[in-house]
Amino acid sequence: MNNKRLLTLILALLVIAISWWRVMTVQVSLTVKEIVSNGVPLLYIVSENAKNVPGVLIAHGYAGSKQLMLGYAYTLADAGYAVMVWDFDSHAANTKPLEKNSLQQNLDVAYEALVKQPEVDRSRLATLGHSMGSGAVMSAAINNVNRYAATVAISPTSASVTPKAPHNLQLQAGSWEGRFIANAKRLLESAGGENKNLFQGKGRELVIIPNAEHITILFRNQSHQAARNWLDATFGIQRQSNYVDYRIIWYVLHLLAWLVILGAIAPVLTTSFLPSKVEQLKSWAGLLIAPFIASGTLLVGNRLGDIDNLGGVLVGTAVSIWFGAAGLTWLVIMSRMQLPTVRGLGIGIVLFIVLWIGFGAMAQVVWLQWWLTGIRLQLFPILALVSFPWFLASGIAQQNLLFGKRLLWWLGQSAALIGGFILVLYLLPNLGFIYLLLPLFPILVAIFSFTSSLLNEYWSYAIGNALFFGWMLAATFPLAS
Q1: Does the keyword Nuclease apply (predicted)?
Q2: What is the spatial distance between Cα 175 and Cα 167, in angstroms, rounded to a whole number?
Q3: Is 181:212 a contact under the CB 8 Å cutoff?
Q4: Contact 69, 60 (CB under 8 A)
Q5: What is the pLDDT of residue 430?
Q6: pLDDT tier for residue 472 given thresholds of 50, 70 and 90
Q7: From CA 128, how far away is CA 238, in angstroms rounded?
Q8: What's the sign of the alpha-carbon dihedral 137, 142, 144, 148?
Q9: CA-CA distance, 245 to 256, in Å (whole number)?
């Protein structure tokens, strides 16, 4: 390793160390306690030496986790609240099947755990939820109207709100999530319209968070502070808090540093023949046709069974099948492949390990339940194997390309994925959650394309990224019943 690479490696390690330090120091002056009650994993967060403080239940959305809501939890805990977050059934670390009444039952478990904490004033409680969780917290605050003094519904779904219930309802939506803005406006109208009378519990407010969509709203300080200000006004709290949740920024820097490390330690490992113009044409033709075949495969599969509930993971299995069908189509059209080498297989495993650590280790404490429970760990290799053909085809197509052409392939693959899954949503509306994932595809493809440029060997690239992608699917989506 030359001096330039060594210096790059040292600087990247320094960024990683600083990022971890900044993320973990968030918990300084806070008490953070893990609890399991009736099989529900919970996390309790409160300021040290807190006494008789309001309590807040915070609920995540579909395919979310308690980690995803920590921005609100830390903001509120630092401002003088006791906070309880948890994983709904079949989500994240909770392996219990999701049933008809699971959401309310889980919320009740969290409520009982919250009011048992010695720091909590059980006469001053509030709820906050995102998407699916917003419906759960609004329903709980309607059914127990005198239990909760305020409710914050972020990217709200539906609930039977009235001018009297729930008490002090704040609605939030990102400016880029039009469907949820429409939901929020309908809820606001049903709740009696804007009202600042929080003293009598009639407060109503709609907050639009600029330049935010369904996921990024959870990391926006404007959303965190709007929720905090609403609860402060409800409970008459005037404690000064300057906390701003920068953890996601440090997470991104941490991930980029790991990718830099990969670049420093992984010079070009293999050289292969240059694809001819005809073969490049076949590669582009395969990418163009593959989404149609893959979408048709899901349509046929749905006629044979419930595609969104297939294979142990809700929606996630359908996503892996789409990638697999698209990849096989792409490979057939390109019709060229070399056998893997033992060295290539080993490098693929190393790539997976680097991506696993770089993407997931800090995600576990920032936004994602990255550690897989037993059943998810069993599903992971299946999801990786099913989606593997896409990564093999992508690696073949991008071999020996310079930056300009790789950028073009990044655009092409991003467009194919987004367009292909929009077609899936048109054919199979029951997979509607995929719509919320579309903005993530260009980011993932950028990471995949970067690793392809470093390795320039498609078997290593395919093995490493397919394992990583399979782990992501197993970690993210809810378990099927």
Answers
A1: no
A2: 25
A3: no
A4: yes
A5: 87
A6: very high
A7: 20
A8: positive
A9: 19
pLDDT of residue 312: 84
Residue 272 has pLDDT above 60, yes or no: no
Considering only CA atoms, give the Rg of the chain: 24
Cα 385 to Cα 38: distance, rounded to the nearest angstrom: 35
Compute the distance between CA of residue 67 and CA of residue 86 in angstroms, rounded to an integer: 9
Please, are residues 394 and 329 in contact by the beta-carbon 8 Å criterion?
no
Report the pLDDT value the prediction gives residue 375, as an integer from 0 to 100.
93
Q: How far is CA 222 from CA 202, 211, 260, in A?
A: 23, 11, 31
For 262, list phi and psi in degrees, rounded to 5.
-60, -40
Instruction: Say whether pLDDT at 89 is over 90.
Output: yes
- Three-class DSSP labels, 296-324: HHHHHHHHHCCHHHCCCECCHHHHHHHHH
In angstroms, the CA 38 to CA 406 distance is 51
Q: Other C-beta atoms within 10 Å of 246: how many? A: 14
Give the residue from 40, 200, 223, 43 showing the smallest Cα distance to 134. Answer: 223
CA dihedral 57, 62, 68, 72 (to 10 degrees): -40
pLDDT tens, position by position, 290-306 = 999 999 999 999 888 88
Give the span between the Cα atoms of 105 and 38, in whole angstroms: 10
**Alpha carbon distance 477, 58 (integer Å):** 19
Residue 16: CB atoms within 10 A of its CB come to: 23
Q: Which domains does the chain have, with CATH numbers?
A: 27-245 (3.40.50.1820), 266-476 (no CATH)
3-state SS string for 143-204: HCCCCCCEEEEECCCCCCCCCCCCCCEEEEEECCCHHHHHHHHHHHHHCCCCECCCCCCCCE
Q: Is residue 270 left, alpha or beta, with left meaning phi > 0 and alpha meaning psi from -120 to 50?
A: beta
pLDDT score for 158: 93
Token couple for 234: 């409800």
Residue 135 to residue 168: CA distance in whole angstroms: 15
Task: Please name the amino acid found at residue 214.
Answer: H
Please answer whether residues 32 and 45 qualify as being in contact, where contact means their C-beta atoms are separated by less than 8 angstroms: yes
The position carrying tokens 């409800």 is 234
| Rounded distance between C-alpha atoms, residue 206 and residue 169, angstroms | 9
Residues 343, 344, 345, 351, Cα dihedral to 10°? 110
In the chain, the amino acid numbered 476 is: T
- pLDDT of residue 120 exceeding 70, the answer is yes
Q: Would you state the pLDDT for residue 275? A: 53
Whole-number pLDDT of residue 27: 94
Question: What percent of the chain is modeled with pLDDT above 90?
Answer: 81
Which residue carries 């980011």 as its tokens? 443
Phi and psi torsions of 444, nearest 5°: -65, -40
CA nearest 41: which of 364, 271, 313?
364
